[in-house]
């Protein structure tokens, strides 16, 4: 990671919207002379440098300007005092002239005239000044060579923190890893062969030029004498190294001894590893905790064995769970808080970020060994405005044996208030949200919560929805409407206002409104949700109170804080009032109008009023995230290339059914997944497995291309079996049948939307014989009639592109949720809401996050190469790992959290453990492994642990055996130490390589703007002619060759 480009961002940004001009000063806030608008609720820092911070925030209704205040965190004097640096009517600002590596606190406020809201606070650290690149390293020098390996060294370079190595014609070796030592032994070489080496010095700012070349050679194979002389007994080995490698494992390694043909390893004076141990390492498993183990090693040959080495003593300490006792966390709107967890595992300090999203007892994925310290601190406070704390705070406590606990307390002091002390309503008005309580914390920042509860003092006059605050006015009179917060979440009093209900003398009755982008729902209903920046249909249910009275009043709709009122189109003759409201599936039966997209945002309030004196107000739930980036891939299976839908058709299908405003479609070049496949992946008995394998390869393609957003691969529909598509639940990759022979667009409107639903966290719905489904649908009491059969609720369906309403069908035979197997075309209210909440919780669906990710493509990063470890954990728990795949330097490591651990052991005996979470489909319990980690040099073994113990492997890859075979065969195929050739010929890239040494080849084109396009992934056979599309002119190619555990890579110009 390059600290020149990555900053630590602590979200404590304070934004205030106000009126006025600009300029930096230390002015106090202007006294309020009018009602202040709502506070800013969403803000980000899309770009940070050493001297600038770019701020961006979501516009606030009723605000005509914004104030940006700045101070320095933990400073004293004037620096600690907030300064007004800008007043603006824009929703973005770039602050310049800042100091490097400094923690700034910004407070952003929304204003109307001179009245400003409380601030939205963000803490930002500017980047440190980049280090100067290291000087060019001197050429390496030879230490030792024999017929199989070469050892060399190089001089330390001032300012360098690591080094990379090349062999021969530009091939990076040691997995492209950054080496911290200044010596290296290259193994598995061919006898009597010349090799060329270069070294590169690196630090966080990048790497120097490659050094001058150093040329040397391996020795010839020794000629055995006619009568071999007696070999002396080998020398005593040096002290071995023993490293804890899991909850029941120790990795022992030692230096090779000249003249030794085998080794004897002793554990507590008992031989382990057998009598034919030739390796200089051994993974000892099945051990017990809290027991000391002593390891010695003897070097042996035909003449006998040496004395035992000194003893390496190691003990696997008990891994104690860290239990988080969480209280006070407001989860009403999917709130969460991020913790920095400190623990001690396998003899090393560990630090992870964990997200907590529930109260009660939560077991951390971090553990601590007995006698070691542990702790937690707040990494990111809850986005809703709560303030949480940990006790103990930081790594200050010591585990004495047994599980340990940490208290996470989010109980937050707060105040409740209503904008007006009194409110008037008319009888027969229902579900009116004229006044909702505002919640603020002690810093006067608005808290976004769904935990407010409302009550009425006189339910004969007015009833109030306890959750939404919506009022139903029953008869003239007065009532006190009160709001409170749960005492276990907030320390707050109550707030109230006086509601006066007057007799409704209007000639009509305004009973209800509903709003629609995809589903027509009542504001404040359980599953109601909108997305910002997308038009909204508003319908008013207006009824005549007399059959003889044909008057139709004017009906206007507006968004509070915006002066424009929009006239609604009403029926020429109103339906007669019955006192009840039933959903209408015809636009012409209700008054309706469309709100412009620019007015639709989080915090909006919709007001509907009639010219005969009635009003109905609502505060719909609105997401902040609204953008889907989707790459479509035409897969080529055998001789068949998938037939694709148009980007416009895909956009229409997504917007018709899903909670997105923006759909950014990219079309990938046709791509052939490496392997042997049946047409349409449908061979009897293997089809499902082939679908899973190709899905995994498409996911590896997405990761290798370092792409943001979702990938969807189309499979040529040559012959039908039982599978139409498959996708990861909560993972951004899916595949499905193509558009071949698909007159009704079922592959798009059903299969693709269904699989995208999986990628947005949805499980199946219970219809059509699905094996597993979301239990919501069958939980009692049922959410709506026949939900246990996956049938839709009564909510009207809105096709926004066609401006038409559709009915879900008659009660008892309604259409089904598209997540079932019963030919549904729409998501149920529950599924749609669940998707929307999942999207809201992921920064990647915000347009600013996508733009920032695209900017990273052209931002140079440091030299740390990454690698992808992928594979599957079968239903029976066995692990199948795929060949290690080297990646570029712009990839980010996977978060170190989850129930599994990837264990990598390198040649020097080092043990790397990286936690990860697997991803699954909704078809079986197999787990997909896809972990990005910094490249590790000279890997000798790799496996997966669960609860600290290794899972069985289906086929453990052994680089050593592959290279041993290569030493025998390489001489007959390649000479002079070469093993591959890369050549661009016209519109193709020709790659030939020694697949006895490296069975798998991957190739990537990198354009001048940093975009990665995978040409081949895990190709086999030793020769590939890869087509290049015309847009590839320029850039570079990355070609990597893998023996399963280790790889080499070459960057070649176009």
TrEMBL record:
Superkingdom to which the source organism belongs: Bacteria
Keyword line: Signal
Pfam families in UniProt: Big_2, fn3
Signal sequence interval, chain numbering: 1-22
InterPro entries for this protein: Big_2, FN3_dom, FN3_sf, Ig-like_fold, Invasin/intimin_cell_adhesion
Domain Fibronectin type-III residues, every copy: 36-130, 136-222
Protein name: Fibronectin type-III domain-containing protein
Species, as recorded: Undibacterium parvum
């Amino acid at each position: 990671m390059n600290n020149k480009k990555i900053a630590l961002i602590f979200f404590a940004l304070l934004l205030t919207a106000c009126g006025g001009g600009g300029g930096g000063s230390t002015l106090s806030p202007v006294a309020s002379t009018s009602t202040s608008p709502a506070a800013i609720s969403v803000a980000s820092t899309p770009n940070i440098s050493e001297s600038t911070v770019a701020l961006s925030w979501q516009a606030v209704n009723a605000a005509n300007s914004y104030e940006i205040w700045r101070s320095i965190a933990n400073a004293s004097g004037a620096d600690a005092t907030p300064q007004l640096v800008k007043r603006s009517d824009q929703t973005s600002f770039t602050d310049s002239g800042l100091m490097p590596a400094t923690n700034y606190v910004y407070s952003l406020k929304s204003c109307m005239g001179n009245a400003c809201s409380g601030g939205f606070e963000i803490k930002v650290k500017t980047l440190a000044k980049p280090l100067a690149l290291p000087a060019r390293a001197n050429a390496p020098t030879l230490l030792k060579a024999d017929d199989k390996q070469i050892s060399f060294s190089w001089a330390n370079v001032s300012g360098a923190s690591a080094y990379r190595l090349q062999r021969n014609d530009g091939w990076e070796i040691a997995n492209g890893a950054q080496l911290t030592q200044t010596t290296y032994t290259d193994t598995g070489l061919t006898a009597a062969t010349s090799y060329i080496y270069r070294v590169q010095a690196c630090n966080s700012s990048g790497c120097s030029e490659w050094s001058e070349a150093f040329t040397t050679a391996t020795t010839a194979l020794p000629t055995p004498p006619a009568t071999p002389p007696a070999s002396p007994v080998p020398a005593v080995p040096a002290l071995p190294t023993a490293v804890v490698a899991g909850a029941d494992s120790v990795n022992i390694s030692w230096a090779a001894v000249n003249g030794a043909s085998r080794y004897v390893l002793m554990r507590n004076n008992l031989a382990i590893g057998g009598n034919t141990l030739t390796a200089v390492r051994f993974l000892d498993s099945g051990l017990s905790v809290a027991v000391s183990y002593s390891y010695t090693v003897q070097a042996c040959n035909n003449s006998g064995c040496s004395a035992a080495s000194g003893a390496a003593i190691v003990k696997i300490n008990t891994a104690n769970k860290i239990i988080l006792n969480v209280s006070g966390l407001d989860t009403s709107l999917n709130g969460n808080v991020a913790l920095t967890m400190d623990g001690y595992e396998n003899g090393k300090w560990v630090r992870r970020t964990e997200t907590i999203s529930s109260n009660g007892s939560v077991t951390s994925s971090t553990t601590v060994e007995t006698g070691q310290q542990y702790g937690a601190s707040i990494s990111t406070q809850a986005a809703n405005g709560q303030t949480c704390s940990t006790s103990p705070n930081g790594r200050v406590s010591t585990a004495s044996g047994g599980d340990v606990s940490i208290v996470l307390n989010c109980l937050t002091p707060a105040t409740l208030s209503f904008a007006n002390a009194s409110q008037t309503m008319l009888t027969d008005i229902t579900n009116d949200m004229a006044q909702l309580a505002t919640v603020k914390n002690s810093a006067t920042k608005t808290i976004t919560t769904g935990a407010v509860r409302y009550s009425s003092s006189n339910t004969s006059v007015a009833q109030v929805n306890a959750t939404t605050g919506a009022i139903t006015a029953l008869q003239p009179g007065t009532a006190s409407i009160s709001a409170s917060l749960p005492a276990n979440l907030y320390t707050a009093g109550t707030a109230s206002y006086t509601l006066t209900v007057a007799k409704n003398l209007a000639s009509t009755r305004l009973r209800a409104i509903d709003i629609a982008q995809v589903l027509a729902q009542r504001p404040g209903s359980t599953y109601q949700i909108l997305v910002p920046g997308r038009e909204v249909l508003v319908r008013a249910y207006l009824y005549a109170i007399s059959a003889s009275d044909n008057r139709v009043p004017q009906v206007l709709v507006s968004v509070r804080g915006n002066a424009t009122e929009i006239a609604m189109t009403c029926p020429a003759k109103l339906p007669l009032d019955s006192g009840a409201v039933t959903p209408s599936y015809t636009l012409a039966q209700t008054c309706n109008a469309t709100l412009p997209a620019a007015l639709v945002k989080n915090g909006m309030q919709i007001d509907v009023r009639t010219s005969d004196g009635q009003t109905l107000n609502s505060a719909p739930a609105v997401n902040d995230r609204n953008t889907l980036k989707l790459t479509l891939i035409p897969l080529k299976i055998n001789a068949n290339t998938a037939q694709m839908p148009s980007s416009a058709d895909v956009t229409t299908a997504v917007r018709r059914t899903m909670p997105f405003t923006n759909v950014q479609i990219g079309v990938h070049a046709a791509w052939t997944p490496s392997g042997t496949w049946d047409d349409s992946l449908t061979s009897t008995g293997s089809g499902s497995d082939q679908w899973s394998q190709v899905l995994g390869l498409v996911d590896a393609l997405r990761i290798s291309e370092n792409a943001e957003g979702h990938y969807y691969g189309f499979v040529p529909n040559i012959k039908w079996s039982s599978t139409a598509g498959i996708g990861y639940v909560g993972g951004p990759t899916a595949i499905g049948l193509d558009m071949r022979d698909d007159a009704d667009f079922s592959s798009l409107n059903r299969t693709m939307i269904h699989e995208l639903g999986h990628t947005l966290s949805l499980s199946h719905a219970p219809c059509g014989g699905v094996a597993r489904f979301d239990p919501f649908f069958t939980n009692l009491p049922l959410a709506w009639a026949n939900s246990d059969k996956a049938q839709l609720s009564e909510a009207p369906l809105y096709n926004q592109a066609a401006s038409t309403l559709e009915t879900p069908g008659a009660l008892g035979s309604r259409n089904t949720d598209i997540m079932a197997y019963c030919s549904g075309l729409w998501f149920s209210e529950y599924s749609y809401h669940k998707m929307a909440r999942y999207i809201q919780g992921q920064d990647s669906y915000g347009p600013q996050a996508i733009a920032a990710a695209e900017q990273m493509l052209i931002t140079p990063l440091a030299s740390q190469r990454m690698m992808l470890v992928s594979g599957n954990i079968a239903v029976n728990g066995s692990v199948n790992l795929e060949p290690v795949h080297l990646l570029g330097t712009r990839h980010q490591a996977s978060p170190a959290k989850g129930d599994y651990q990837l264990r990598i052991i390198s040649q020097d005996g080092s043990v790397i453990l990286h936690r990860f979470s697997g991803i699954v489909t909704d078809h079986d319990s197999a787990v997909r492994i896809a972990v990005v980690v910094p490249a590790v040099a000279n890997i000798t073994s790799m496996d997966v642990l669960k609860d600290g113990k290794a899972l069985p492997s289906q086929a453990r890859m052994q680089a050593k055996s592959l290279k041993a075979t290569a030493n025998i065969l390489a001489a007959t195929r390649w000479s002079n130490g070469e093993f591959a050739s890369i050549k661009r010929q016209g519109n193709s890239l020709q790659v030939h390589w020694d697949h006895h040494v490296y069975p798998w080849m991957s190739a990537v084109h990198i354009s001048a703007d940093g975009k990665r396009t995978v040409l081949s992934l895990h190709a086999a056979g030793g020769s590939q002619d890869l087509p290049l599309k015309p847009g590839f002119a320029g850039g570079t190619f990355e070609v990597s060759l893998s023996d399963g555990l280790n790889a080499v890579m070459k960057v070649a110009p176009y």
